[in-house]
Amino acid sequence: MTARPYLVAGAVALGACGLAAVLAQGLLRDGAATPVVPARATAPNVSGTTLGGERFALAGLRGHVVLVTVWASWCGTCRQELPMLADLARRLRPRGLRVVGLNIRDSPRVAEAFLREIGISDAFPHLTDPDGRLALELGVFGVPETYVLDRDGTVARRGVGPVDAEWLDRHLLPRLAR
Q1: Number of folded domains in the chain?
Q2: What pTM was computed for the model?
């Protein structure tokens, strides 16, 4: 019996572990530590259909500070983050904040059921992106992911991974005060 099959299996397993480690590092990265990429770039005019069936274009929110949250029903941290963002959307709307959800890789039926389950189905509009095309336009790395856009439509901040109230206050409140 030769050692070759074991060497091949070991090399494949080692390669898979290496790939998993690289992906996990990116997906578990602290959103607060992620810089804007690229700095001060104009956000692409992501447009599509909301879960409510309406046409929506991100460019239509110019003049407002916009928070785009990328989420999926199968994302555990999204379940905690979305209600916090819904509360933020309600509180800061009078100051010019607009929040938009981008649901990726779910059917609209599954996404709507998830939003009803966590009690935020009417808090802000959610674009549906079952095939991930809109996420590619934005350059999304994973879920959750958060983008803060200035009033002129430029990307002011990008958070990869979950964000918390401190991150949101630090990156939203100064922009809303302008």
Answers
A1: 1
A2: 0.79
